[in-house]
Amino acid sequence: PKDGSSGQEFEDAFYPLIGPDGLELETSSFRIAVADGATEAAFSALWAKMIVRKYCSSAAPGSALASFLPTLQRRWFTHVTRRPIAWYLEEKVREGAAAALLGLSLRAPEPLEPDHRWEATSVGDCIMVQIRADDIVSVFPNMHAADFSQTPFLLSTSPAGSSQLGIHMKTQEGLLQDDDLLFLMTDALGAWFLRSVESGGAPWTMLRELGRRDQDRFAAWIRDLRATKQMRNDDVTLIRIDVWLGPLHRTTSLPSRIRTRPSATIS
User: Fold this and answer.
1) Left if phi > 0, otherwise alpha if psi is -120 to 50, otherwise beta: which for 130?
2) Which of 119, 128, 148, 202 is in Cβ range 3.0-4.6 Å of 191 for a Cys bridge?
């Protein structure tokens, strides 16, 4: 969480829920999502949790986000108003909560397809970076460090606030290869990452060297970036995914799989 805030005030969210030991899967498809709730709105942490779960559990592609959004908006409103709320929150609830979302789907080839693929959906300023052979293959959405100083369009609980979702939602596909490394980041870390790249650095090296499960070291590193004014004081979430491709067993003809070991690190 932000310096000065508790874990209960943390407004980022990710799904599936990943513990300190990470998560290792062998599967033909996999979805993961990260969201960043807007601090100035009420109950944004709840909204962030709802949208990452819905993205990962939906059978529809991420680009169909608008189709299930109205149901999710009504569910959020019902949840936050099921008990009386303080008078000073009533207007904020009417205005609604908001969050940035980045959802990532990895899948093995369909029949007649030669390649493993990823498909990502974005609303707001969370980013995904794909690293291969110590070089950047993709940054999604295609952003620059200066873009993080702007106010992004966010996924809102308000129908009026979501009216332009189709204009602002971004989708992209790409190919996966063995040993690809994927990072999903909320905006404070994403801004630091892109500033470093634009200055000629290779920030993925630091993220890789932090290890998959060293929460304490990651937290100390984030505190140092904040103290030295390299990163603004905001909630930070990093999800790292290591990808291996190939058959489940060498002696069988089972379908190809994507083996991922995402380690979500929160500080």
Assistant:
1) beta
2) 148
Burial zone of 67 (CB within 10 Å; 0-12 exposed, 13-18 middle, 19+ buried): exposed
pLDDT at 260: 57
pLDDT tens digit sequence for 220-232: 999 999 999 999 9
Q: With both helix axes pointing from N to C terminus, report the angle between 65-80 and 44-57 in degrees, rounded to the nearest 10.
A: 140
**Exposure b/e, 209-228, CB count within 10 A at least 16 = b:** ebeeeeeeebeebbeebbee
The torsion defined by the Cα of 37, 38, 43 and 47, in degrees rounded to 10, comes to -40
Q: What is the pLDDT of residues 103-124, one digit of tens each?
A: 999 988 877 778 899 999 999 9
Residue 63: pLDDT over 90: no
Contact call for residues 182 and 241 (beta carbons, < 8 A): yes
Query: In terms of pLDDT, which residue wins out, 225 or 250?
Result: 225
Q: Rounded to an integer, what distance in angstroms lies between the CA atom of residue 183 and that of residue 206? A: 12
* Phi/psi of residue 199, nearest 5 degrees: -95, 5
Q: What pLDDT is attached to residue 266?
A: 39
Residue 232: exposed, middle, or buried by beta-carbon count in 10 A (0-12, 13-18, 19+)? middle
* DSSP classification of residue 33: E
d(CA 46, CA 97): 9
Q: What is the dihedral of CA 38, 44, 49, 55, to 10 degrees?
A: -60
Amino acid making up residue 152: P
Identify the weakest region by mean pLDDT among 38-47, 130-139, 239-248: 239-248
Scanning the structure block, which residue is given the tokens 């529809």?
Answer: 60
* pTM score: 0.87
Single-letter residue type at 73? Q
